[in-house]
């Protein structure tokens, strides 16, 4: 778990409580030894007590704010979609993404 990320989530102004929860729960799944974080959307949604579509709305906000980065992963042999990999940038981007059209 990344306590720094959780602290950042809780102290981030302008985020809805559910968005903060999504960030904190995503950080909970981060392996502190490897830095890897790739829970499935179903697992993450279940941990937050929300639907996958609601989860994706909150993940979009977190990505726009620069609090997370998402990278789609695929099986190189079969091309099958794997769970998304999440990373946590050191410095959040300003809130300019919320105001872009």
TrEMBL record:
Cited Pfam families: HTH_36
Bias (Polar residues): 81-94
Example of a GO biological process term: regulation of DNA-templated transcription
Region (Disordered): 81-101
Protein name: Helix-turn-helix domain-containing protein
């Amino acid at each position: 778990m990344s306590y720094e990320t959780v602290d950042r989530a809780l102290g981030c102004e302008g985020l809805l409580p559910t968005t903060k929860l999504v960030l904190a729960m995503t950080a909970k799944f981060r392996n502190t030894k490897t830095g890897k974080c790739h829970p499935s959307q179903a697992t993450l949604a279940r941990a937050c007590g929300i639907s996958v579509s609601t989860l994706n709305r909150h993940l979009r906000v977190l990505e726009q704010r620069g609090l997370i980065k998402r990278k789609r992963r695929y099986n190189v042999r079969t091309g099958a979609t794997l769970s998304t990999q999440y990373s946590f940038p050191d410095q959040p981007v300003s809130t300019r993404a919320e105001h872009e059209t």
